[in-house]
Each structure stands twice: as C-alpha cells, then as structure tokens.
Amino acid sequence: MADPQNSSVSGSEQKPLLSVRNLKMHFPIRSGVFSRVTGHVRAVDGVSFEIHPGETLGLAGESGCGKTTVGRALLRLLDGAEGEARFENSPNLLTLSQREMRPYRKHLQIIFQDPFSSLNPRLTVAGALMEPLKIFGICKNRKERRDRVVGLLEEVGLSSTHLDRYPHEFSGGQRQRIGIARALTVEPKLIICDEAVSALDVSVQAQVINLLMDLRRKRGLSYLFISHALSVVEHISNRVAIMYLGKLVEVADKDEIYKRPLHPYTEALLEAAPIPDPSVRRERQLLEGDVPSPINPPPGCSFHPRCKYCFDPCRTETPPLTDVGGGHQVACHLVTHPDSPRKTCHD
Ligand code: SF4
Question: What is the dihedral of CA 330, 331, 335, 338, to 10 degrees?
Fold first, then answer.
C-alpha cells in the first residue's frame, strides 16, 4: 500500500505531461470596516494528480465541490493558489509571473462551458481565431493566418463560409466548435474542458464529445475533463477523479471506478445518476443533504454528515487518499481503517 501522505493520482509509469501536487486555493473572506480577513473559503484543499500524454482525466463531483477552481487555478486565471503544478519540465506554474507564464499558455488551453460569453461578440470567427496566432507569432502574415483558421474550422466540422460571421449567428453547438477551434489555434498539448458540453442539448453533446475524442486521437491531445455529469465523464475519460468539498476522494481507471466504486460518495453519485436506457428500471437513490460549507468543513471525513456508513473514526480523523492496489485510490475509513466493519475493501 502506498504511503498515504504521498499518495497521488498516477495512471502510468510514463513521464507526466502535467503534475499537480497539494494544490490549494483558499479565498479570503473579509468583513468589518477594515476589511479584515475573518476566514477562508477552502475551494480546493490539497489536490494532487498527474495527466499523461494522450490521456483524459475526468474530474467529477457535485456543483460547488471545487473542480472548476482546480482548472482555473492551474491556468492562473485565478491568483493565490498554493502547491505545485509542473507542465513537462517547467518550473512551478503557480509561482510564475503572468509574463513568465506566457510560453506555457501555448501548451495549456481551456474550453469554457458557455462559448457565447467566452467569444467576443464584436469579433468575427476569423478575428477571434486569428488573434492568438498573431499574439504567439505563429504565422508570418494575414493570408497564412486566414488559411490556418480555415483548416481549423474544417477540422471541427465548420467551413470557410463561417469565417466572417459573428458569434450570435451560430447555434450553441457551433459556438462550442468555434471555442474548440480557438483552443487548437496555438497547437496545445493539454486542454482543460470546463463543463464544456453541459450547456448543450443531449444530441449536440454527443457530437461535441465525439469531436473531442477524434481530436485527441489525431493530435495526441490530453484533456482534464471537468464535469458534473458522470455519464459524459465515463464516455470520454481514461481515468476518473471524484472530488468532494475541495479534496479528491477517489481516483481510478474508468472501468474500475464505474464497476467497483469504493467511496460511498462515488457510490451515491452513481446510484443517483439517470439511466439513459428507458427499458432499464432501477430505483434511483438520491444523495441526501447539501454539500457542507467550504468555509467551515465538518471535522474528520467531510462526507460524514451525509454518509450512511459513517462510524466513529469518520467523525474525528481525516481519511488520507490511499492506493488500495492497481492505482485505485480512495479516501475512506471504511476501506482503510483497522477498525472498519468491512473485512475487505470490496465487501
Ligand atoms: Fe463514510 Fe466514513 Fe468513508 Fe467518510 S470515511 S465516506 S464517513 S465511511
């Protein structure tokens, strides 16, 4: 069994593309006339994981668990994160100035949930996609930039006829394709997809997911795929990390986590997930209670007020994320505590 203090999310022996250690993002709460700091919102509280070339790590959990903050902190869209994040052999991205961060932005891109608000309404598609090419000096002249943008549009299922149109002239799915094309302009190696298909209709979601999977195959891309929808995460991910109240509670290969979840929270999320097949009947077990406040998380296991398996140590001792074999990691006393009522982790 791995040392729990040094446990991390690792999917292979290959050198990781992105390595994150003990990432923390605590937002100060200020109050009073002097705006004194009176507390912190612990949005992300000690998250470690790795992403390897060509791999998709799904990051799932309920709204408010901190998964979006992880993506934004890594890209330095939020300042104040602690810990370590290295892209290939880079220095710690979290300590770089915005200027020093610039060369790494070329390799790390993001696709947002709402493509409409992430596209400038005053720029045509050509303008929006040629801008990063100009900033990073990727093409020599305007013609080269325009040709490259046409190629990208075709790659995402659009065409040169869309070049001179504005964002409001497109459907949600088309706008997300433009968002994907824009992320691809600078030839990134890793894309953070932040609820990238959540705002789309189910049929359009499937098309965009298939497009992302094709691009991963063709370009050897890696994704950090952030979503609250477990069925979508299952479809696209190689490994899945489940997050609760700012911490990772379970990480494993996709098949392992969906077939044999070990953490009661993962189990509850899977039981509550809708079944896409109308011929299959199952009583859905809804997860009771709300996610506690990250300002004052419960002591011990932060899931204990909602957990049907809670026993004494859960109320006082924080369970460490522990490898229970084959890279399957779980933070639960039921699985690892010597006083657990379970005899084996799969009871
Ligand atoms: Fe439930 Fe205890 Fe495991 Fe937390 S540590 S998930 S409370 S059994």
Answer: 140
